[in-house]
Amino acid sequence: AQKITQTQPGMFVQEKEAVTLDCTYDTSDQSYGLFWYKQPSSGEMIFLIYQGSYDEQNATEGRYSLNFQKARKSANLVISASQLGDSAMYFCATRILKGAQKLVFGQGTRLTINP
Amino acid sequence: NAGVTQTPKFRILKIGQSMTLQCAQDMNHNYMYWYRQDPGMGLKLIYYSVGAGITDKGEVPNGYNVSRSTTEDFPLRLELAAPSQTSVYFCASSGKGTSYSNQPQHFGDGTRLSIL
Fold first, then answer.
1. Residue B83, φ and ψ in degrees, nearest 5
2. Please, what sign has the CA dihedral across residues A54, B28, A35, A14?
3. How confident is the model at residue B40 (pLDDT cuts 50, 70, 90)?
4. Chain A CB within 8 Å of residue B66 CB
5. Which among B44, B96, B106 is the nearest to A101, CB-wise?
6. Which one of A22, B16, B26, B49 has the largest count of C-beta atoms within 10 Å of its C-beta?
7. pLDDT in tens, A18-32
């Protein structure tokens, strides 16, 4: 079975600072994907970034990067130069890349950016 | 670009009533999913489908039913609404991912359902 653990219920960061949101995962499969989604107060789920288990380089998408440490089973999200619009819930998720490819989500981290 | 469309956006039901949450996607995705999100929590999988005519239970299927007669549509049915089903419901779809391809799940905007 897969499991995602996000140990930070809430984070408070000053605008323009970098922030790291923690995510550890547990999976018995060798082929899996790791995802980060953002959920603003309006409620929609916004895909941010993806890392495949066989990717040797950390994924980057604009100000988002994923710090993938396979041996430690961690997939932390790093947001550089935070902005007020980054205030939201952030969810880490994983799925096995075979069969139905169901996503398993963590509990989320609420990020608040202070001006 | 429509993506995943859910209707209705909001609904209030009385205990014991039934209703169907609609979900449609226009990306020709084979995989579709229904999740529920309780306040302050992550998403939990209710049902999923890997193609027309094929559905299966997720983590929390009790009290719900689904059908998948077409690739585009994946409705979720509540037969006897209970207060415990008060939640936000998300429908999602995706293509088939591999270790080397990025196939994120695309989510609808959600349906906020209250059972009173």
1. -55, -30
2. positive
3. confident
4. no
5. B96
6. B49
7. 999 999 999 888 888
